[in-house]
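User: Before I run my own analysis I want an independent prediction to cross-check against. Here's the chain; please return only the structure tokens and, at the end, one sentence I can use as a sanity check.
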Amino acid sequence: MTNPPSAVRKVILIMGASSGIGEATALHLATKGHRIAIGARRTDRIAAIAREIEWLGGDVLHQALDVTDVDSVKAFAAAALARYGRIDVLVNNASAMPLSPMAELRIDDWNRMIDVNLRGVLHGIAAVLPIMQAQGAGHFINVASTAAHRVDPAAAVYCATKHAVRALSEGLRQQNKNLRVTVISSGITQTEPFDGIGGPGLKGAAGAMIEQASIPASAIAEAIGYAIGQPDAVDVNELIVRATAQR
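Assistant: Structure tokens:
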């Protein structure tokens, strides 16, 4: 592992880091020499990822994290701040996607998507924004989806949460002249949110899409790394990353 100059070696917090995009991002950024804090509910998974990063020579903190609980998110941010003395980047990555037609009235699933996909992002912002404002610098990376740019019949609530992430990200950007805000809109990605899709028909369709037109989580990790690597005066506001074959 080659460490970058200290001026660009950043402290990066990744929420929802136990698999998929979060895991790939943690490993990618750690190999670039950044100091990483990873959090998720599955403590066994983040502990294993932390061991891999340490084996590669990286500097990592891991902690149990529930993005739907603002106190848990604040404790995660506080632990990173106590260890590293600053927070340069927050990657809001946790996501849930239990898709279904609205007529099925899966209200618990609707609330779960709102709690994880939207409220979780707000909790991350609430925990880290005062720290970044005090530093006079910082970078929020909010992982949305191509679903933030369209609406699909079985994904109305999911799309609504991702549209909302884009909207609040733009508002956050406009309110802070010295903080960077990036939305990563990922296409069909080989990651676990597809496991929550309800109904055999939807699961079959999702499986076919993954097989025909998906990208690895590492592609999103590299896009995140690109946004982070820009000069402080350059804010990459949004990146849409999807398979060439996706329509």
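Sanity check: The chain has one domain: 6-241.
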